[in-house]
Amino acid sequence: MGPGKKTWTAALLATAVLMITGACGSEGADGAITLRFSYWGSDARQKMTQEAIKRFEAKNPDIDIEEEFSGFGTYYDTLATRVASDQTPDVITLEIRGLREYAERGTLADLSSAVDTADIDGKVLATGAIDGKQFAIPTGVNAWSLVVDPKAVKDAGQRLPDDTTWTWDQYVDLAAKITAGSGGKVYGTQQSFNPAFLQIFAAQRGESLYNGNKIGVSPETLKAWWAIHQKLIRTKGSPDAAKSIELGTQGEDRSLFATRNGAMGMWWSNQLGSINKAAGGKEVDLLRMPKAQGAAAGGMFLQPAMFYTAAAKSPHQAAAAKFIDFMVNDPEAGAIILSDRGLPASSKVLAAVRDKLPETDKKTLAFLEEIKGELADSPAAPPKRASAIEAVLTRYTNEVLFDRMTPDEAAQKLITEANALIAG
Fold first, then answer.
1. What is the DSSP code string of 270-292?
2. Tally of CB atoms within 10 A around 9
C-alpha cells in the first residue's frame, strides 16, 4: 500500500493477496498484469500458442500470459472445478456446447464493444451471443464433413461418389464394397457417434437437434440414424460394434485413417491437417455428407471450432479483451496459429495467411468456399448442460449396437433422459 494508506497486518495482507490472485489474473510488483489463459489441445497446439503468446507479450510488455493447458479429456472437469472454487481464468476457451451454461451462470463478460468484430461474418459471430450480449468471440470456422482416402477407394476397385447427389444407402453400399474389394484389409468407413452427425442427419429430415430446452429429434429419426450404424456393421462396411465404439473414444491419430485401415470417416474440417499427418501424409479429401432420400437440404453448417471468452470477475477485463483481440484479429497471430483453431474467423486474417496455409488446409478452405452457398445458418448456442448430451447419446447408441436395447426403447429413454438433463 502507498503512503497514507491503511496499514495491513501480515495475515490480512496474505488473505487479500489470495483473494485477488485466486479469482483471476494478478498484478505484479512491477505493475505488469498477469492473465491466466485456459485452453486444451495437442502438443503441437501448445507449441504454436506459446509462440503467439510471446508475440503478444512483446507487443504488450505490461501484460504477461500464464497458460493453463490440458488435454481435451480433462479440460472441462478442471475448468468447472476452478470456476466453482472462484479460480476462474481471465481468458477461457470454450466450445459452443458449453457456452450457454457458463454465460447464464454469470461466469463470462460481455465483449460486445471490447473486441473488434468488424471482419467476422455476422452469422458466425452470432453463435457467440446470448440474449443480445456477445459473450464469446469465434476463433475460426469448420464444418462436419466426410473425409475420404481416394487411393484406398480406387485400390478397392471403387470410384469416388458424386457427393452432390449421394444418399445414405449409397454411402453404406460403397463402404461395404470397399471392405470387400480390399479383401477385408481396409474398412470402407469408420463409424462416428458425434452429435454433429446426428444434427445434420436430423436437418435433412426437417428436424433440429434442439428445440429450445428440449431435444428436437424425433424417435423415428434416432432409429433411422442408428439403422445406418447397424447396417454398416452388418455389411462389414465398418468394424464390428466393439471396435467401432473403441475407435469412437480415440483421436484421429489412432483412427483407421492413421493406421491406413480405413477409406472414409467423419471429422470436423479443421482436423484434415492432423488426419493427414497422422496417416503419414497420404492424400485425403473432403466430401459433402450424404443425404436422406428426397431431402431438400444437406444440413451441413459452419460452426466455430472454439471461442475465446473473458471472465466476468476478472479485474483486468480490458487486458483480457486486448489478448483476445490479438489472437483473433492480428495477422501475426494468424500466421502462427493458421487453421489450428479453424480457418480464421477474421476475413482480414484469412486473407493474410491463406497463401501460408499447408496444402491440406488450402484444400479445406477450397471445400468450404465451394459449399458455402449450401450451408445452413450456424446454429445458436445449445441449452445449458448440452455438453453432457454427447455422453447420453453415446451410451444409448452402445445399447442399440450391442443389442441390449431395441431402437424403440433406446430412443424413448434417450429423449426422456436428455430432456430432463437440459431442462433441469
1. GGHHHHHHHTTS---EEEPPPB-
2. 8
SS3 39: strand
- Tell me the pLDDT tens digit for each residue of 61-84: 999 999 999 998 899 999 999 999
Half-sphere exposure of 296 (CA within 13 A, CB side): 5
**pLDDT tens readout for residues 215-251:** 999 999 999 999 999 999 999 999 999 999 999 888 8
Count of H-run helices and E-run strands, the chain: 17, 13
CATH topology of 33-140+304-370 equal to that of 143-301+380-423?
Answer: yes
Closest CA to 90 of 316, 412, 262: 316
Domain boundaries defined on the chain:
33-140+304-370, 143-301+380-423
Helix axes 219-234, 389-401, angle to 10 degrees: 50
Closest among 106, 107, 77 to 388, alpha carbons compared = 77
Q: Quick one: which of 221, 227, 217, 300 has its CA closest to 266?
A: 300
33-140+304-370 is a CATH 3.40.190.10 domain: yes
User: Do the beta carbons of residue 187 and residue 179 sit within 8 Å?
Assistant: yes
Tell me the CATH number for domain 143-301+380-423.
3.40.190.10
In angstroms, rounded to a whole number, what is the distance separating the alpha carbons of residues 72 and 259? 22
